Each structure stands twice: as C-alpha cells, then as structure tokens.
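As the next step, I selected for study a record pairing a protein sequence with its backbone structure tokens, which the following lines show:
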Amino acid sequence: MLATVVLGATTGGLGAARAEPSATPSEPSRPATAGRPQTFWLHLNSTATTDAILATEARRRSFIVLNAWEENLIPKLKAANPAIQVYVYKDLSSTRSYACHDGTDDADLPTGVGYCDADAHHRDWFLTAPDGTRYQYDGYPGHWQMDVGNVAYQDAWAANVIRSATAAGFDGVEMDNALFTCDGYHEGSCPARYPNDAAMQGAYRSMLANVRDDFVAAGLKAVANLANARLHAGVWDSYVEYLDGGFDEWWLTFSDTDMLPEYDEGWSRVVSEIETDEANGKITWVQPHFSAGAVQPFRYAFASYLMAAGSRAAFTQISQTDGYGDPTPWHAEYDWDLGAATGARSSAGTNLWRRSFTCGLAVVNANPTGSGARSVALGGSFVDQDGRTVTSVSLPGTSGAVLRKPGCTP
C-alpha cells in the first residue's frame, strides 16, 4: 500500500532559517468559487518559520495543518488572515512510544492517546496479531496500532483530542490513518478481531460515528486522511458521512510519470471524491505527487481538480513522501479566478472532459499516458497556461489544460 502521513517528531525544532517567499500572496477576502482555486499546507515536520512566511501562507491558503506543539503559530496566522482554518494533526490509529519519556507521556501528542498511559492502564486498547503480539507500523518505529473498534479507546481518543485542540484554539482536527485494510502497516497479517477488510472498515466507521457528535458539540471540524480509498468502492463516502471532509494524500498522480488514467479505480473515482463531497457540503483536500517544475502532472492534476471543485475543495502538490515541511510550491494558476462554473463537467470524447466557467475553461485527457494526442475545439478564443491565444488544444494521455477568456473579469 502507498504510505500515509505519519509524524516523526515530538517537539518542534527550529533548525536553519528559511528564505522568505517572494511571490505576492493571494487576496484572502474574495469568496471561494469553483473557478478560484483553494490550497492547503501541511506543516508537520517542524521546519523553521518566520512571521513573514506565516503571513504569506495564511493569506494564500484556506487550510493549514500544524502539530499540537505549534499552537503558538495560530495567533500569527489568524492575524494575517482571520478566515484561515487551522487544524491539528492527530493519528486515529496509533499511539507513539517515542512520545513517552521516563514513564510520562509528552504534554503535546501527535495522537489521541499516550503510549505510557495505555501501556500502564489500557493494554486491551492495543491491536494485536493472532499470536498476541502488538502491531508496530512497518517502516515507522514507535508507532503502535490501536484497536479503533474499542469503544473505550474511541471515547478516550475523542475526549483527549477535543480538550487539547479547543484549549489551543484550533479550528479542526486532521485525523490521520483512517485505514481500509486489515493488514495496513503489517502486510499479510490481520488481527483475529478484524480478519478481513470489511471488519476493519466497520471498526473505523464505528469510531468515526461515535466521536462525531462530540466534535460537533465542541465546534471542531474533522477531516480524515482517506488515502487509497479509490481501491475500495464506496468507502470514501461511508467514512466521510461521519466527517466534515476527506483528505486524499495520494490523489491522481504518484510521480512525474505515474498518473492515473480512466479505469475502474482511476480518474473518475478520484474526481468523484470531490464531486460527492461538494454535493454534500463537505471539504475535500487532494494532494497529487510530482516534482517541482514538472509540467504535465501539474496541469493534469490541476485541470482534473477544477473538473469537480466547488467552494470547499482544496489542492496542493507534494514532491516527496511525508515531505511536510516548508510551504509547497506556488503556481501562478493558483491566483487565477475563472469565476463560477457554468455547469458540471461534460464529455468531449472518449475519456476527454471539459468544464466551463464564466471566465475560463478546463480540459482533461484521461486516456493512458503515452496514448496519442486528442484535439479539443474550445468554441472560442482563450489564453492558455503558456500565454498563447488558442481556439483548440491538443492533449496527450494524462494531461490537461486550464484556459482563460481574454479580458474577462469574474
């Protein structure tokens, strides 16, 4: 399975100072529309920040996720943009032994339950293999998987997270590792209590349903990391039913050359995550993977995002797995405002899609990478992403284009 985000630090070291951003920050006061992109920033690796960086990113982003020990950044972000939504990272599925020192859990945790307390008083909360040994995440030492179907664990997790998040002034919680398989992080071994994927999914739905009312009562939003939901029909919607939104950590593109075309678990399924959430008033964060400066995967992912985005979906790219430090690259297109969508996406041919906005157009070719280019007539003159005035575009497989109407003001 593809890796999901896990935190590898328990205190926020500053490290070397980072260069100031040079681009002009976006204006935060304009209302969100389908044609005005929203972005987010996961600042989870405790990289250094400055007041200038925080102010710029607060104005640019709609959502920022921090560690629990970074609450001192919230007032600075809110001062720069009172509308910014700041979330705290908390893992649903693990407790961390590295966040326990001399028998005492750290005051600020990346989880909802401390390892020391669970080990001393609630050993039944640990998820165990059929031979009784505890599950430790493969590849992530010190991450111990918990039994999310245990109601006592659910209640303790929610109470601890809500208490710390509200006291610190967070707007919501990013719940990491809402898993779908019984052998997540320990391939080939399923716990006796959850011997198959359906049983494990039931445990997660139980947890999300149980904690939902508590989060609502506390005024906290909840967005869960649902990476790889596309591989399990229906589970995205069945989890998001109990959430304010979903986060797809591995959305559409996995590298500069590995991009999902249309097939049963491909393009339409991941785009529908946004479409369904928008229809239900839910948040969607989507994160494609590709390197900075890679043109085709960016344009494919960005145009695909615009095929479904409304006022709640947000987009950002990442180039390195778990590389949640400095702000992600800013593209000029993020400052574009194409205006309101004039309708839903529509077919322009086999696996070709287009969506019109009052001041622009997005076009996607979701046929496989390497397949022949397809030409799409635009029905008028538009300015493409390279600044050329065009009346048609020619797109190879897994590529896209976002175009603006000359002189149009939304």
Observations:
- The chain has a mean pLDDT of 92.
- The CA atoms of residues 352 and 365 lie 5 Å apart.
